[in-house]
Specification:
The complex is a heterotrimer of chains A (306), B (444) and C (320). Chain A is mainly α. Chain A is built from 13 helices and no strands. Chain A has a domain of 145 residues: MetI-like fold. Classes of the chains: A mainly alpha (306), B alpha/beta (444), C mainly alpha (320).
């Protein structure tokens, strides 16, 4: 990979900063094209929002009403608080437990994964030692191997070690982000100045002090990207917890809700629980994404400042 | 020099760990718990975990818990066996953990035995309680001299039907399958299906074939014996080929799914031939109260049996349990003591009591939903006595049903059920051999 | 750069003049050890969670279990069987069909999704769009919905009786069955697209924003209209982002598991071996055939690796 996309991006962004900040890309901006483009965008937005709208409406209905009333409008009975109450109290509040588990796996996992990837990427970028390239190539191979292919043998491995069906069985694999290492190495190579490091060494700082004090600070934008990427990846991960966890009190939210969904064929009241649970899990995520997407964009442009 | 040495050490370390792990990494399920000494009775209070998908099971357990402080039972809800529940049990067993008791359908017991997942309860005195249970059910959990589960409920079959829809064509519930096909054709004229036939759930077809007198797999002296292309099975396959081709049954509506409930409440599905546990599901059809009755299942004429079984679970003790003796005490109470059976019926809505002579107090009453009919005594008690006693399950039931269902699915694109059955027989034999078991065709 | 070099040579001179040579030896030692200390936790976990499982999978895929008696009660042996398990996996029509199915899925869904993401990115970045920030947020929001939850959502939107979409279509006389054998694969494709278009679009937008304004000025003075600008300037310059998103989409497509597994209860058309991962999962945990499942997992990893590698080489060669 001679021209990795991220380096291209970094270089291009650098160029953008040097040139016009907000180039006028309008070529023939007219009233007509504005209306056309905006209406297309609005139609597309409808597609993205329809399921969210539906689940909000559905969460206000009782299980019987779900089947008998029109999906896109409310039913005569407004049962939102009942539904949500049921969701939160069912089985001694297991949904809350699941939420806590998800935060643990995704939050703690992503933070630690970012730290480890940053340390590794920084080491590979800023130090010359034998095996540097070999390690990098191996880790890069890890990016291309699907996580689901390693989950099954990992389960057998953890079973032998007595780790399966514990928090560690999901946390440990989540701490490894080959893509994160790759990103951090690229970034460290491009932005962390050797002179800065030498100066710090002259001041008598130890290598680890330099990494924590200087390196991490410069790497921050890349850290944010890696963190977000890993956060969503872990939050989304279904196969790994499905295989590793048998005890439902260890489940993250998606696995728990899929459990409830499986019960809907025998016990129709689970339709209500599942829609309520889906709504409760979407709200924080939707807010997070709307906030973070601005962050995401900003992070990349900030990172190019030299 | 230092990095080189360290790297070499790292490499050697990894190599040693990998070799060690690979060597110790045996395939799960190859060691048998029944070859080890019997677990001694627990010295003090014990809490048993019970994985099941019956709703309300904890209420049943609580009745026991109140009277037995030394043996407490905690139930954990899991998805239905074939919807992920068995996978959870297998992976728990592979990881060396798992509950003490698990709900395992009769047809899956041999599969668990294949991976040494179950405790032989005869080693803990199960033969003493054999007489309390229906002999047909007991024979389905007994293999190679051991007993591997306590029957918890069963599924004698009958036909539920909507009187309002049948009244539209002035028909009586059919007594034979041929009459059933004729009635079905009449019902199409009023835009109703007499029933649904699931192409992706081969257990229904299996139940019909059992009723016709088939025995697909039998344990022989030197291995398994398979016979899926006998007259009985092929007769059933040909019959349903014809009925599906004539659009007498619907193959696109999945039983007890959301679409099924909607169609049933609109009168587009006239009835359902299913096991007794279907009554709880039918009671979920909107506006159905007073509109349904129960009739005996249609028969295949002179050959075959009056009824068949669909489903039926056991409470089995998993190999990872450390308290099989205590687990047996609880399951004996739950499945054969009238108090336990009544609790199961009241809180869990189980299909049919496994006890030899007690069907449960609640089931002795006429039912308001089913138009005042005392359908349990009228239909299901006789049905439970007319089931094939020769049928036995085999170690790759789930895989076999999947193979059969795959073949059935081709019906939608021009295949036939007859071809599917013949092809499935071949593939099932291959699957047996791939598992390292020996199998031959009957008569060969 | 020259400054750094001067600094370095100054440092070297200073170092050689330092009285305590042991200090520099310690310094060199610390510098040599540092990368390993920094790398160690990552490497250890990487070995544990990537290298070892691959080794275990390969090792397990070469073993097989044979049983005597009806249930193996007369003896169970594990033996080394070379490639028998691979032959069995490749001879399983269902497994091969599942690979073919995800390849078909990938060939259709990935380009469609990338094209839609690109078009949306271009539209949003064109000055003709009002409220681009709001739209961008709305398009990105589904990315935060985990695949499982998105599948549950859309499943309810597909189920007749629950789904207002089916109802509305019925009003105008169109009978849609989202779960029919011909349509269920594309119903799944819809879920994936809904979830990931926004994310891919953001990556492309980031690359679009990097295009220097001078290029647009130059093009406009040449008299190029919006279409020419799109094709000749924007598309070539966002190519690296497109490559990245495509590679990740390929890897993602091969891992398709949650969507078919959850929809299986609703759609009779989805069998237990619908996608390669589902096949391996069923083989391991429903049929208890861990050895064959390991062979399947190795095969899936190989196919994913080769496809991604080939695609990257292809695009790199084009860049040259």
């Amino acid at each position: 990979m001679n021209q990795d996309p991220t380096t291209t991006r970094a270089i291009a962004l650098r160029g953008a900063k040097n040139g016009a900040v907000n180039p006028d890309r309008s070529a023939g901006r007219s009233r007509g094209s504005t209306i056309l483009v905006t209406s297309i965008l609005a139609l597309v937005a409808l597609y993205f929002l329809v399921p969210i709208y539906w689940v909000v409406i559905a969460a206000t209905k009782t299980s019987e009403d779900l089947f008998s009333t029109f999906g896109f409008w409310f039913a005569p009975t407004f049962a939102l608080w009942d539904n949500l109450g049921n969701v939160l109290t069912y089985d001694d509040g297991i949904f809350v437990r699941w939420f806590f588990n998800s935060v643990l796996y995704a939050g703690v996992g992503a933070v630690l994964a970012t730290y480890l990837a940053a340390a590794g990427g920084y080491a590979l970028a800023k130090y010359r030692f034998r095996g540097n390239n070999a390690i990098f190539a191996t880790v890069l191979g890890g990016v291309l191997v699907p996580g689901t292919a390693t989950a099954l043998p990992l389960f057998l491995l953890f079973s032998q070690m007595g780790l399966s069906n514990t928090y560690w069985s999901v946390l440990l694999p989540s701490l490894v982000s080959p893509f994160g290492l790759f990103l951090c190495r690229i970034y460290a190579q491009a932005t962390v100045d050797d002179a800065l490091l030498e100066a710090a060494r002259l001041d008598g700082a130890g290598e680890l002090r330099i990494f924590h004090g200087v390196g991490l600070r410069i790497l921050t934008p890349a850290l944010v990207t890696v963190f977000l990427f890993q956060l969503v990846g872990i939050w989304n991960n279904y196969f790994l917890p499905l295989i590793m966890l048998a005890d439902s009190s260890l489940y993250p939210v998606p696995l728990g809700l899929s459990n409830w969904l499986g019960q809907t064929t025998r016990l129709p009241e689970f339709y209500g629980y599942t829609t309520g649970g889906v709504l409760l899990s979407i709200i924080p995520l939707a807010i997070a994404m709307i906030v973070l997407q601005r962050f995401w964009r900003g992070g990349l442009t900030e990172g190019s400042v030299k | 020099m230092k990095p080189l040495t360290r790297r070499q050490l790292l490499g050697v370390g990894i190599g040693a760990a990998a070799t060690g792990l690979l060597a110790g990494c045996s395939t799960p399920g190859t060691a048998s718990a029944n070859a080890l000494p019997v677990h001694p009775p627990a010295g003090g209070p014990v809490t048993l975990t019970y994985w099941a998908w019956l709703k309300g099971l904890q209420k049943v357990a609580d009745i026991w818990n109140a009277k037995n402080p030394d043996i407490q039972v905690r139930t954990v809800p899991i998805p239905g066996g074939n919807a992920g529940g068995y996978q959870k049990m297998y992976s728990a067993l592979a990881a060396g953990g798992g509950p003490d008791i698990a709900q395992i359908e009769m047809r899956s017991i041999p599969e668990f035995m294949l991976v040494n997942g179950l405790v032989d309860l005869n080693r803990y005195g199960a033969q003493d309680i054999a007489s309390r249970f229906d002999p047909t059910l007991w024979s389905q959990v007994s293999f190679t001299g051991g007993v591997y589960g306590i029957p918890q409920d069963s599924g004698p079959m009958g036909s539920f039907y909507q009187t309002s829809v049948y009244d539209k064509i002035g028909a009586e519930p059919p007594k034979t399958w041929d009459e059933w096909a004729a009635t079905g054709r009449e019902l199409r004229k009023v835009d109703a299906y007499i029933d649904v036939f699931p192409l992706n759930d081969a257990s229904v077809f299996c139940a019909y074939a059992t009723q016709a007198g088939a025995t697909w797999l039998k344990p022989g002296d030197d291995g398994w014996v398979i016979d899926m292309t006998d007259d009985a099975t092929l007769k059933v396959a040909r019959f349903f080929d014809g009925v599906i081709d004539d659009d007498v049954v619907s193959t696109s509506i999945a039983p007890y799914g959301a679409g099924w409930f909607a169609a049933a409440s609109k009168g587009q599905i006239a009835g359902w031939t299913v096991a007794s546990w279907g009554d709880a599901i039918i009671e979920g059809v909107a506006g159905g109260s007073g509109n349904w009755r129960v009739a005996p299942m249609p028969t295949w004429g002179a050959d075959g049996y009056g009824s068949s079984y669909l489903g039926g679970s056991t409470a089995a003790v998993l190999a990872s349990s450390k308290h099989p003796a205590e687990a047996l005490k609880f399951t004996t109470w739950m499945c054969s003591d009238p108090e336990g059976i009544d609790a199961l019926i009241e809180h869990c809505g189980i299909g049919w009591s496994p006890a030899a002579d007690y069907i449960g107090a609640a089931r002795r009453q006429p039912s308001e939903f089913f138009s005042g009919q005392n359908y349990n005594e009228e239909v299901f008690v006789p049905a439970s006595r007319q089931q094939s006693p020769d049928w036995s399950w085999w170690p790759i039931t789930q895989q076999s049903f999947n193979i059969l269902a795959d073949g059935f699915r081709r019906k939608a694109s021009g295949g036939t059920l007859v071809d599917a059955v013949a092809a499935a027989e071949e593939q099932i034999m291959t699957a047996f051999r791939n598992k390292g078991l020996s199998i031959r065709r009957a008569g060969s | 750069m020259t400054d750094a070099r001067t600094d370095a040579s100054d440092t070297a001179r200073l170092r050689s003049q330092t009285p305590s040579t042991s200090r520099s030896a310690v310094r060199t030692g610390a510098v040599a050890r540092a990368p390993w200390i920094l790398l160690a936790p990552f490497l250890a976990l990487f070995v544990l969670t990537f290298i070892l499982p691959i080794l275990v999978a390969v090792g397990s895929s070469f073993m097989k279990v044979t049983r005597k008696g009806l249930f193996g009660e007369a003896g169970v042996t594990e033996s080394f069987v070379w490639f028998d398990n691979y032959a069995q996996a490749l001879g399983d029509g269902n497994f091969l069909a599942s690979i073919g199915r995800v390849l078909l899925f990938g060939v259709v869904q990935v380009p469609v999704m990338i094209v839609v993401a690109t078009v949306l990115a271009l539209l949003l970045e064109s000055a003709s769009a009002k409220w681009p920030g709001a739209f961008r947020a709305m398009y990105f929001m589904p990315y935060g919905v985990p695949g499982v939850i998105a599948t549950i959502l859309w499943a309810f939107l597909y189920v007749p009786g629950l789904s207002p979409i089916v109802d509305v279509a019925g009003l105008v006389g169109i009978e849609i069955d989202f779960f029919a054998p011909e349509t269920v694969l594309w119903s799944i494709a819809n879920i994936i697209t809904w979830t990931y278009v926004g994310y891919n679009m953001l990556i492309i937008i980031a690359q679009l924003k990097a295009i220097p304004g001078e290029l647009y000025e130059a093009a406009r003075t040449d008299g190029a209209g919006p279409w020419r600008i799109a094709f000749d300037i924007q598309l070539p310059l966002i190519a690296p982002a497109l490559v990245l998103t495509t590679v990740f989409s390929i890897i993602g497509t091969l891992q398709l598991f949650a969507e078919p597994q959850l929809l299986a209860t609703f759609s009779p058309a989805i069998d237990s071996q619908y996608t390669p991962n589902l096949s391996a999962f069923t083989t391991a945990f429903a049929y208890n055939d861990y050895n064959v499942a390991a062979a399947q997992a190795v095969l899936i990893a190989l196919v994913a690796f080769l496809l991604s590698f080939a695609f990257l080489r292809l695009t790199n060669r084009k860049n040259k």
